[in-house]
Amino acid sequence: MPTPTESHSPAPAEAGTPVIEFTDVEKRFGDNVVLKDLNFSVARGERVTLIGPSGSGKTTILRLVMTLEELTGGYIHIDGEPLTHEQRGGKRVPVSKKQQKKLRTRIGMVFQQFNLFPNMTVLENIIEAPVHVLGQSKQEAVQKAKSLLEQVGLPDKADAHPTSLSGGQQQRVAIARALAMDPEILLLDEVTSALDPEVVGDVLNILREVADTTNVTMLIVTHEMGFARDVSHKVMMFDGGRVVEEGHPETIFTAPEHERTQKFLGAVL
Ligand code: ADP
């Protein structure tokens, strides 16, 4: 039987334009500088997991990519296009709302707390953005939504309301909703942290399948180190808003070099 690392595709080559590129990124909340001089890039189809202690800035990175937080310094590029600001005439100027909206349609995010629209059915949650943002016909969006509900194991829940579902079921709907947009980039923010332990495995298996069967680029924040090890091409260890170490999951999890990584993994593994 192949080991997990042998069973999935190798890391994509680092050639070509990165799908996500952070350049000198700074994020501050008031006087609190959470990220400083952060530079990294993610290649097409690459799956990168961010690990590190609570408060080290991991979720903020995902929220910046989703434009849910305002970038206070530096640049983020998606497929080579500026997401929030660009350099023009030696100055850092904001990009248009239209440009930002266009790029954001290529990005899907699944949250710790599901964030489904409570006043809509499961089906309505899934077709909302394909119809209203991508301009798909309702018929096309419904057809795709139904096949995604099959994929996440909830074919009979299309007309249910989120509040009638368990946490694990709500998270599966949230995954279907993100996939309905055919995102190039999928951001996973501690998607199993709010779930009962017995359903965590089901949700992770759905995401493993997405990783195995699509070329979607993933940026993952998780405390599930087994999952991180199985699906990631690269793991980045954060502390205090900086990358202290990065590398192949096998190396990071079995022979971390940095003392901070050793301590962190010693505490969580
Ligand atoms: P992690 O995901 O690694 O636990 P976060 O990105 O959630 O870390 O948080 C990093 C830091 O940013 C923390 O100090 C946190 O208090 C701060 N922070 C995050 N979001 C906000 C916010 N909306 N307002 C003020 N501070 C915030």
From TrEMBL:
Domain ABC transporter span(s) in chain numbering: 20-265
Topology of the protein relative to the lipid bilayer: Peripheral membrane protein
Alphabetical UniProt keywords: Amino-acid transport, ATP-binding, Cell membrane, Membrane, Nucleotide-binding, Transport
Subcellular location: Cell membrane
GO CC annotations on file: plasma membrane
One Pfam family linked to the record: ABC_tran
GO terms assigned for molecular function: ABC-type amino acid transporter activity; ATP binding; ATP hydrolysis activity
Recorded superkingdom: Bacteria
Family designation: Belongs to the ABC transporter superfamily.
Protein name: L-cystine ABC transporter ATP-binding protein YecC
Species of the source: Nesterenkonia cremea
